[in-house]
Amino acid sequence: MKIKLDDIPEEGLSLDVIAEGKDLEAIAGGLDFSIPAPVSAHLDVMSAEGRVIVKGQMSARAAFSCARCLKIFEQPLNSEISLFFVRGKAGVQGREHELTGDDLEVNYIEGPELDTDEILLSQIALEAPMQPLCAVDCKGLCPACGADLNAGPCGCRIPVEKIDARLAGLKDFKVK
Ligand SMILES: [Zn+2]
Ligand SMILES: [Zn+2]
Prior knowledge:
Elements (H helix, E strand, L loop, with lengths): L1 E3 L8 E7 L1 H8 L10 E10 L2 E15 L6 E16 L8 H5 L5 E4 L3 E3 H12 L32 H16 L1
Parallel strand pairs: 5-6
Antiparallel strand pairs: 1-7, 2-3, 3-4, 4-5
Helix pairs in contact: 1-3
C-alpha cells in the first residue's frame, strides 16, 4: 500500500495493512526464503515538517531451508516496528544525525509516498535468521551418504572426523 505523505492528517494515520507474501517476494526479487502467507501489520504513521515516524507491529510467516538438513520449515516473524524517516535524498540533510542522536537510524523517503510493502519487507529481512535451523539441535545430513540424521543413524561407519581429514587431503592434492 502506498500512502501519500501530504495527505497524512496532523493527528496521524492508524492503519491495518495486509500484503500478499507472493507480492512481497516479487518486490524483493531474490529472497533466499519464501513468504507463504499474507503479512499483516498495524501501523501508526505521523508526518510533520518533513519527518515521518512509523510505529506498529508486524505478523508474518516465512519458509526457510534448514542450513544443516535442507528441510523446508516455517517460522513466525513477528516484530515491533519503529522507524524514522526524513523526506529527501540521503546525505542532503547533514544535520539530521545530530538532531536525532546516534542510536536512531534515519531512513530517507525521496518520493511523495510511503510504501508500506517496503516497510514490511525490510522488517522481514531484519527478522529473518542468517543461519535458519529447523531445530536448534538439528543433526543435519550424513556427509557420507546424505541421509537425514534426524531420522536416525544411517549406518555409515566412517566417523565424521575421518571424512574431514580426507577432504582436507584432497584439497592439498589439488593445490599441488
Ligand atoms: Zn534441519
Ligand atoms: Zn551416512
